[in-house]
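Hey L., structure's done. Input below.
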Amino acid sequence: MNICGRSVCFFLLYLLSLSGSGETPYSPGITISSDTTLTFSDTIAKTIPAPITFSYKNVRDYIFNQLSYPQAAIDSTIQGTVVLKFTIMPSGIVDSLRITQPVHPLLDAEALRLFKEMPQWKPVIYQGNPIAVTYEIPVIFELVDPEKK
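Output:
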């Protein structure tokens, strides 16, 4: 067992050995009693977001919310559509990410960043089994003149 693992075990033993009201001094509202079982999965389940269903709308929303148009590209009026190809694995992670239609290194790098940081997706289920599916998605970088709106 590594040092970190020992520290966690000692901390859990400390929490279990607390007397008095049964509440930990660091986490008000958590009550430790003889029938309480603490597991790491309880904590992990609350901190890792659930996989998202892969759909055009969900991908579009993710791109819209996470896209950061590079300032240097804005200053140089660089725009265009970067097309990426990737595979959603049976585990739901993005794999085999590559650009099939590059535009400019600044825009290409931002599109890659978006897809590398994508959340875990729910895998596609075919005949009851999760399968790998390959997608090709455009990421549109378009500068809009505020006076033309």
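Strands lie at 52-53, 80-88, 94-101, 121-122, 124-126, 129-131, 133-141. The radius of gyration is 23 Å.

-- N.
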